[in-house]
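#onboarding

Welcome to the new folks! Below is a worked example of what a typical request in this channel looks like: someone posts a single protein sequence, and someone else replies with the predicted structure as tokens. Don't worry about understanding the tokens yet, we'll cover that in week two.

Example request:
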Amino acid sequence: MRRAEELRSEIDLWQSLGERANGLAEIAEMAAADPDEAETLRPDLERDLAALQADWARLEQQLLLGEPFDERGAIVSIHAGAGGTESQDWAEMLLRMYLRWAERHRFKTEILEATEGEGAGLKSVSFTVDGRWVYGQLRSERGVHRLVRISPFDSQKRRHTTFALVEIMPEVPEDAAVEIDEKDLRVDTYRASGAGGQHVNKTDSAVRLTHEPTGIVVAVQSERSQHQNRERAMAVLRARLIERQEEEREAEMARLRGEHVEAGWGNQIRSYVLQPYTMVKDLRTGVETSNPTAVLDGELDAFIDGYLRSRVGQAEGSTPAG
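Example response:
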């Protein structure tokens, strides 16, 4: 019933879009017949056309989202690469970028676990982004992100290159098609870190799960009780296992297409250059901008849209190798 309601809602949106387009076309025809009236109506027509185009682009993007779990929320993990404080600061910058993107789209976010760096930034952080189509959009961000800048932590003001790994997993229901045997889990509990004062947790409420067959480790400390943190950790573990299945499926499809697939730190998906020039470029799609400030402030939609359209092109042009 919920799916039927969602489909009815989508049909209504497309019908509304068509009605708005027809209405604007009629007004434009009337304005064209009367030059004086055209000047009066021009500001309203331009405003309504811009709104119509924005709504069209949003709905058109949803047509590009047809993979399993695309409609679901996402669990995002960011890991600083080698490079100490510089890479840890980069991980925190990426966290802010994604939180601002979610804020722009009015998606709810929650930090599940964060490990602070020694001097600044974050060694790692995991958080959820709740909303419809979130995973379908954010899976474009999965991979290694490269930053080039003059490091504020270098007294000699040298240019540094640093990396961070972004993992994107779908939020999956408890009955998702993935089996977790309790015998395969190692469960560790520890005291959750906090900012001090009333926020310090005085019990071992944080939970770390290790899935021994795969080596996947999940830690959650966002809730106050150990039971709640364990439930959240199990949800993240299910998501990681689902994502691993998806990665294996994509790797097999790439192998059939004859592509070379290699997971490694050398395979950055996007470069963010702040000095000596300014540019953000996606190395998979060629989408780029000379305004990294806007991108780091959450303006990611052009990169997401470029990735989704490139995948459609790959699917249409792919033929299994004989």
